[in-house]
Amino acid sequence: MNHRVNPIDKSYFAGERRDGDFTVIGSVVQRSDVLGHVTGRTEFFEDLALPDMLHLKMYRSERHHARISGLDVTEALAVPGVVRVLTHADIPNNLYTPLKLIGVGPDDEPILAEDTVRYLGDPICAVIAETEAAAYEGVSRVRVDYTDLPAVFDVEEALAEGAPLVNEYQGQNHFIYEGHHCRRIRFGDVDKAFAEADHVFEWRYQSAPIEQAPAETTGCVVVPQADGRLRVHSDTQACFFTLDNTALILETPFNKLRVVGGTVGGGFGGKVDVVVEPVACVGAMLTGRPVKFVYTRYEEMQVSSPRAAERIYIKDAVMNDGRITGRKVTLYVDAGAYARHSPYGTTKAAAHLPGPYSIPNVWADCHCVFTNRTPSSAMRGFGVTIGDFALETQMDRIARELGMDPLRLRLINAYRDGDMKAHRKIAEGTALVEVIQKAAEMVGHELPDAYRRMSSTHREGR
Amino acid sequence: MAKLRGRGYASVNYPTGMNLGGDPSQALIHSTTTGTFVVSLSSVDLGQGIKTIAAQCAAETLGLPYGNIIVDTADTDTGPHCMGTFASRGTHRVGNAVIMAAAEAREVMLEVAAEELEVDAADLETDGTGFIQVRGADEKRIHITDLALAAHFEHGRTISGRGIFLKEKNEPVPETGEMDPDSCQAHACTVAVVEVDDETGVVEVLELHNAYEMGRALNPAMAAQQVEGGAWMGMSHALFEATEPYYPARDHGPRDFSEYLMPTAADIPVQRSVILERPAANGPFGAKGIGEMTANAPIPAIGNAIFDACGVRLDSMPFTPEKVLRGLDELRGLDELGDASERAHAPATGHERP
To answer: Which ranges carry the Aldehyde oxidase/xanthine dehydrogenase second molybdopterin binding domain (chain B) (predicted)?
Structure first.
């Protein structure tokens, strides 16, 4: 078998390794799915083609924020092949939020819009037809009258007084964390650190929404069973999470549903939301026939929840020798119109601060902000990827300002075993020092002896 | 006009798992009468390879060949609960659950073998090729194929096991943010080498050097796949990707892959990666999760390399040619129309490497 591996440098942490006599672990075995993938024989949910299967396509909001003053589906229903048009009235429990399973509320998102749309692409009604072409034709004949409402797109403008309210179920343009307007980190005294610092540096960082871009778009096929249950073939990243949320939306016992999946053409976080199964299940229940609902590439890119845009302000207290003694971070996560998984991602972002460094004074306000855009949600590196962009750009800037080697600056501040992190967890199993040392060695970046002798297991002079 | 070369650094850590509501996954394992073990899960394989890793963990724990394991996953009627594939949790949670299930099944396997061979189970070992044998007297042995058949038809035993891994619920303290959200941390340092065309603003990533600490690489080829695939994604995020290119304006949103640009094979840089292993006490064979973090360090490393190359500090992603050119114009004291302004002149090059 021909394969590519990266060398493992076992000279690091040699005393902690217990390699034993593994026979399978640490060996290259061929991926169990790879032959199917490269020969095109792997079966994905879309390979299920049933003779009586119906196709569902969504009519979506054409406005950023508007009242729906009229909805007319007469012409859509008149299209040959269109079987049914679903509106919010067909959804047993139309209002949900996916994290209610772990006690996060409030329910803030309709499956199908009731009287208001909150972003361009908000689903309003679902056309179910014998063919995809008929479903698209039906969608094009749906008539909606909108009365535009003021919209807000910038996170700081959304938090300003007098901003249009994005989501009345939330009640304000930010998620409330146990009575607080944001997820907070309070560790030490940053103001004292700034007062005593040799230098104070503050910069701003910004990202834009990013698409997960899986090869296979989000979708499902729901097949009614003879015993009255529904078999849901889905490319969800979490079968039981999808099952539980869908059952709550359908107001059915959980055991009415069976989710079958597990072979997915890429997820990257984009298939954690529960956005196709509930409405497809309603369609299957009401028609008694299999229903397929799969996102187009356009929907995947513009409607399916992307990685959130983030705005991050970092203010650091820095001493002449490179020690960072205080770090203040103000983070705005653009959740879009609905919460989805953003309250969780924002907490994850807070737990990651101030990066992999031991900084004795840390203050962070991490805001989960609602705006009139496509709801963002999970994506690979949820809550961390953009933070790392900001934190590591900040480190480079500090090194430049001090005229220091950027790796030495990182080594001086690197967290070690036994350090208390800003969220008050004692660090263990750390290895930042060693990956920096190794990377330096790989590119011929010379480090003085004192830096090469540093170790994650103890701090010098301790 | 010139192509300017620069080098940038970034070092990061990443949590394995992220717990808000309690984070469990289960595994069940049983031997069929053929001596093949079926691992039942409801975990999802997105292409990252959880089916393979689960089979490796089961084979190692049972002491049987990898080929004796079948993974049956992601049917909620037949597979026990899994929270899902996210938060770099799959290898850690599912791996631990599979090890627990396989350890229980191994115990039964050895008990039945002891009855069959009329020896003490404590004296038995597995040889990794399918035999259960008496330690130090390996002529006294039985193959799993024969043992599984005997267990069912003669001993009336099921060779099976149950496993679960649970990270218990932890509520953050709202005033301070005190919390215990994760199980361990993996680490990485990336060095990027880029070339910036100061006429077009186009950035080419020439080299990425990565050092990763991941506890233990359970399957080194799949670890390489994660490190290199993730680096590609990080490079793509750094240079190309945005569904709203002029955020917070909603215009110009790409609709397909002809408008949403990503690097193709020709854009991929030379990659050199080295793995370090500091086994995590709570990880399966010490493994930590690296599924997500591999996209992270390349982004700031590339941004910092662009600064090193041409003096333009990019504080907003992605690092498009437009932003590079605007930055260069600003350094040269040119305004939007390319005319010299009265602002301070600064050279576009000449930034000393420390």
So the answer is: 3-269
Q: How far apart are CA A243 and CA A433, in angstroms?
A: 43
Tokens of A420: 């208390």
Question: In this complex, do A258 and B242 lie within 8 Å of one another by their Cβ atoms?
Answer: no
**Which DSSP category does B25 fall into?**
E
Per-block mean pLDDT, blocks of 10 residues, chain B (354 long) = 96 91 94 98 95 98 98 97 94 98 98 97 97 92 98 98 95 96 97 98 98 97 95 97 96 95 93 97 97 97 98 98 97 75 44 41
CA distance B4 to chain A (A): 19
Active-site hit among B168, B228, B292, B336: B292
Q: Is residue A171 part of a domain?
A: no
Strand partners, B87: none
CB A271 within 8 A of CB A214: yes
A155 to chain B, closest Cα gap in Å: 9
Nearest residue to A137 via CA among A80, A83, A220, A88: A80
Q: Report the phi/psi class of residue A374: left, alpha or beta, with left for phi > 0 and alpha for psi in -120 to 50.
A: beta
The string of pLDDT tens digits covering residues A11-43 is 999 999 877 789 999 999 999 999 999 999 999
For A142, the token pair is 């749906």
The tokens describing A53, both together, are 């299967």
Output the pTM of the full model.
Answer: 0.96
Which of A243, A273, A302 is the C-terminal boundary of a domain? Answer: A302
Q: Which of A448, A334, A348, A87 is nearest to B243 (CA)?
A: A334
Strands A230-234, A257-260: pairing is parallel
Angle between helices A406-413 and A432-443 (to 10 degrees): 160
Mapping DSSP to helix (H, G, I), strand (E, B) and coil, where does residue B152 land?
A: helix
| CA pair distance A169, A158, nearest whole angstrom | 16
Q: Cis link prior to A306 (omega < 30° from 0)?
A: no
Q: Closest-CA residue in chain A for B43? A: A262
- Taking CB atoms and an 8 Å limit, are B74 and A396 in contact across chains? no
Please name each of the domains of chain B with its CATH number: 3-14+182-331 (3.30.365.10), 19-167 (3.30.365.10)
Q: Do B52 and A29 touch (CB under 8 A)?
A: yes
Categorize the per-residue pLDDT at A382 as very low, low, confident or very high, splitting at 50, 70 and 90.
Answer: very high
Domain span at residue A114 reads 54-148+216-302
Which two tokens mark A331?
């983070």
C-alpha torsion sign, points A368, B182, A267, B304: positive
One domain for residues A288 and A314: no
- CATH for A372: 3.30.365.10
Strand segments, DSSP code E, in A14-171 are 54-60, 66-72, 82-86, 95-96, 109-110, 116-117, 123-129, 143-148
Task: With CA atoms as reference, report the closest residue to B326 among B315, B317, B318, B335.
Answer: B335
Number of separate domains in chain A? 2
Are A119 and A372 spatial neighbours (Cβ–Cβ below 8 Å)?
Answer: yes
Q: Is residue B292 among the annotated active site residues?
A: yes
Residues 61-100 of A with CB under 8 A from B: 64, 99
Structural domain contains residue A12? no
- Cis amide leading into B269 (omega within 30): no
Question: Do the chains contact at A351 and B189, CB–CB below 8 Å?
Answer: no
State phi, psi for A242 to the nearest 5 degrees: -65, -45
Are A117 and A73 found together in one domain? yes
Burial of residue A7 (number of CB atoms within 10 Å: 0-12, 13-18, 19+): exposed
- Where b means 16+ CB within 10 Å and e means fewer, B37-56 reads bbbbbbbbbbbbbbbbbbbb
Q: Give the Cα separation of A193 and A105 in Å (integer).
A: 37
Mean pLDDT, range A61-84, rounded to an integer: 98
Closest CA to A392 of A430, A354, A445: A354
